[in-house]
Amino acid sequence: MTGVGKWVFVVLAATGAAGTGAACAKTGHSALDLGGGELPGAAGLAAATAPVPLNTTLISNKALCAAGASAAPAVDWSPLRRISRVEYDNMVRDLIGDTTAPATAFVPESPMSDGVNFQANTYTSVSPLIVQQYAQAAETLAQAVVADTNRLNKVVLPCQTQDDACAQQFIAKFANRAFRGQLDATVAASLFQVYSAVKTQFDFTTGIQAVITAVLESPRFLYVFEFGDGMPTGDVVLLSSYEIAGRLALFLWRSVPDDTLMQAAAAGQLETPEQVEAQAARMLAPPAAGQTSKALGAMNDFTTQWLQLQATATLGKDSQFSKWNGNAKLGAELQDEALSDVSQLVLADNGGLAELLTSPSSYVNPDLASFYGVAAGSGTAVKVADAFLAQGQTGFVKTDLTAVSRAGILTSGGVLATQAHTTLPSSVLRGKLVREQILCNPIPPPPPNVPPAPASVPDGGTTRSLFEAHETRAGCVTCHQYMDPIGFGFGHFDATGAYQAVDANGFDAGPPLDVTGQVNPMNTGDFSATFNGATDLTTQLASAPQVAECFVVQELRYALSRIETKADACSAQQIYGAFSSSQLGVQDLMLALVKSDAFRYRSVENAGSACQ
Fold first, then answer.
1. Which among 284, 226, 118 has a CA at the least distance from the CA of 600?
2. Which one, of 288, 276, 219, lies nearest residue 45 by Cα?
3. What is the DSSP secondary structure assignment for residue 379, as one 8-state letter?
4. Which residues lie across from 199 on neighbouring strands?
5. Residue 212's closest CA among 198, 230, 201, 202?
6. Fewest C-beta atoms under 10 Å: which of 50, 184, 252, 425?
7. Alpha-carbon span 156 to 170, nearest angstrom
8. What are the tens digits of pLDDT across the range 253-263?
9. Angle, CA 278 vertex, CA 275 and CA 280 arms, to 5°
10. How far, in Å, CA of 36 to CA of 476, rounded?
11. How far apart are CA 241 and CA 229, in angstroms?
12. What are phi and psi of 493, to 5 degrees?
């Protein structure tokens, strides 16, 4: 550790560290406590325990909100969580102008629960490795800032006098924003002490470097603290204005609040649902000319997790797929296509879930037009910020793909290629995606020693027949009956996501395809259907109440970075009502969510209790 880096430990001690709170257990959670006197992760600290997901029952079971909308707010406990890697990268971008994405090298998050595939640090233990990664990143980032005089003076410092008054002004603005409005006088004094000690030994710039290092290592930056405004109503307490600002920024931008949001919090203009909604609408609005949309980054993060696109850019496929292997960037382009389809429909067009699931239009660049075998559209290109692509391939144009049987985001090439093997498409993976992400029906993990998926189709057989064998194998049919019959509907798309008229799997010929299937209900009242092909399936999914209910639950999980509980039922049902009445407008759902009790309140913890 460098001489500057050692001052991190001074500030960690001053701000409080995370310790294990075994005595804290509420609604299925256990918690981390503060003030344990240890560095986060020094002993491999335990994480909160996730409750059992309620999935769409949260909305469909009206008895869970028997008191109705007129009842007092009912919300659940808010587990202490660490920020995600995406949040870390976005925060250092907005705080110090760093675009190197250092958190991509951090220990990854974990899925919230089996079958709930959003990834967060809410239920993930803290290890010594991640603490080391935080320390190294903080030192590296701080060194880079002060080494870049232009960035230091124009982006980071609010003043140019390079004296103690300037340092105090910097701490007041920088640390308060990094801590999402939770900089108190004691911590500010500790940070100034760090600056003063280092400046005395070195100089002003190195003192500022030490402050940046300490702030980026502080639990108040790395964790999301929410205590409420101190005026409880029964068992719940309204979040403070700064905590609301932090939640808005984390949900809609995956970052820190901007100056406008901080000013609104300081002025007490985030106290009513209408005020919160107004700020959220501003944050989702298209940016001014020349500005980058922060909402776009968060929307891409949501889509990546919702559709499980994390590995799409680096997928490998077998040698018979000449188009795939002839373009090393095709996976990245397919990922950019899926992300653009969602972000353009939601943020630019203010569209709805039904259109997202059924639209034959997609955003493609010249490479993808060739891959799909269509002529690219003639509209205005959407520029994709993907450094991996050549300059001539960053423009994506809205293009009608009806001729190649595309109907909604589930038939996007990137989604289909990801839910496939290197040679064969996978009815299991594709059906599981629909089951868990679109219907919110979690599938249990497979038993141990499951044999690998077949790599080829035997003579006289079909891809479908390989997977239909699950129906006769003991121990397989119990789960596979809920996945495979859905996945059969995507049989016209090979392992790369390209359209195939027959079961060719990248070769010149193959047997006819049977793309009929069914959705078997997992629970009483669940959606069920028979269909012929992907277009028929997605059309029926788009009109199913369970699909809309699931999307609300998925947004709620993403917004709060936790699993839903019964205490969220009234909020979820009210959000669903607004979503339904808006013709399933996604922005309408997001605005209804930020106005909800689940978003604006937290449960009360008594002073001195393990949870508090």
1. 226
2. 219
3. S
4. none
5. 198
6. 184
7. 8
8. 999 999 999 99
9. 110
10. 47
11. 8
12. -125, 120
